[in-house]
């Protein structure tokens, strides 16, 4: 027979209602009593009934996670971080993929809000108007985007770009290209803005190319435009785009980094496996996911305090073999 809350109460010497409070709202129970209940539950192997607990707390014990593209190797790291941190707090994760379709995001938020306690919204592409229209339906924390006072975890794009430009400038590059990502991407806009400011201050010409899909095919599509731009180095919106550039340059017989230097953004696992290995700006993917769940849990416990919370995580340049000195000619 499964262990029940009455069994735990009998062993702990308290009432079933006290067991319930100790396991669902421990702050309402004295520390000594709570410890006795937790010890009895552990000894008996008691597993709380999630549905019953939900009736008491008004919580589902579920978190929603919406990502734009699970085939992008950046996002599985974020998912892993979200799941591990949620599991530590006894939450399950409902995962949804929008396939880079901004129109699907609002519908998914509305659908999930009926089944979860809150949503982690990763790199959302929807307009600010659409975003604001769904925020009131359930607690939301955004990753890789900032809009007004919505709680958010972001990466220091400005410092990441500063490190990238400083590296290329030290190698003698004076004309740099940027293969831009999705037009609706907040990260893309932040990186483009930081590039304009940083290259202008350094006296470096910046050539902005595109907007392209944040995928391998996007880099392939941009490659000939990069060569036609006459740049000696190119920074891609993300690593997948950079890998597409490397592939097409190899097809064209363009040597990297001898003829042109290539740099990505994200530090996905594949960036170390190609030849030449990809110089990139690393983002702490699992840490982003964990931080997002931390902020969401704070929002659930204390909505007023966490309502406008923001946290920025550092980025780090990873120098590998796809960047080198600018061609002398």
TrEMBL record:
Coiled-coil blocks: none
GO function terms (MF aspect): DNA binding
Segments forming domain HTH lacI-type: 3-57
Keywords: DNA-binding, Transcription, Transcription regulation
Keyword check for Transcription: yes
KW Acyltransferase (keyword) present: no
PANTHER family: LACI-RELATED TRANSCRIPTIONAL REPRESSOR, TRANSCRIPTIONAL REGULATORY PROTEIN
Name listed for the protein in its UniProt record: LacI family DNA-binding transcriptional regulator
Provenance organism: Dactylosporangium cerinum
Lineage: Bacteria, Bacillati, Actinomycetota, Actinomycetes, Micromonosporales
